[in-house]
Amino acid sequence: MPPSRRQQQEHTRERLLEAAERVFTARGFAGASVDQVAAEAGLTKGAVYSNFASKEALVVALMRRRLEASMSEVREQLARSGPADFYAEAGREYQAEARRGAGWAMLVVEFWLYAMRHPPVRTVLADLEHELRTQLAAFLDDLAAQGGGRPALPGYEMAAVHTALDIGIALQALLDPERVSPSLYGTAVGLLGGEAPPGRDGRQPPPAPRHPGRPPDAAPGAGSSPS
């Protein structure tokens, strides 16, 4: 049975999002164009605009896609590891991703700065980040209720701190990797989550879930990466 029109549209949209992620993480928001996304996807520019109203809308859709995927991943991870080992497993994943690249972290910060100067985009992005914090807060509250740490702040505030630490430390580690290690994130979030400081029990406090908007880079065919 051939795919329905709706299935074809969903497939086209997914192709565009995958291509957009490669192009934007390689070139940045300012350096990328809708034409480049269309070419990377093997589709027309019209196909892009029939699915996304603007270049900005395409980036917001990418962020929402990553939010949904990442929240699903951390829930599955909790189901596999249990609350006692969740932070340690999440910490290993965070550091592995930090080593794989930084195009997404750079794109997120670039787009935030762009949004602050463009009020309509700012409103949309602020709502998306609020949705992220709300979902992450619910997850952290549930994790704490199952015995996963003793958070020093309410869930929503913890979620905001996680985001700030995640992006901030990632960027500092990219700028000055010899002086700033991604492992600092694990120490800071572990302390906020009620873990013992390093050395108190012979273990390094592991980090909480990474910010869902930051995947590893994958930029084949999208030009040279700024990272």
From TrEMBL:
InterPro entries: BetI_C (IPR039538), Homeodomain-like_sf (IPR009057), HTH-type_TetR-like_transc_reg (IPR050109), HTH_TetR (IPR001647), Tet_transcr_reg_TetR-rel_C_sf (IPR036271). The keyword DNA-binding applies. Residues 204-218 have a biased composition (Pro residues). One of its GO terms (molecular function) is DNA-binding transcription factor activity. Residues 10-70 form the HTH tetR-type domain. Residues 33-52 bind DNA. Residues 190-227 are annotated as: Disordered. The keyword Repressor applies. One of its GO terms (biological process) is negative regulation of DNA-templated transcription. Gene3D superfamilies: Tetracycline Repressor, domain 2. Keywords: DNA-binding, Repressor, Transcription, Transcription regulation. This is Transcriptional regulator, TetR family.
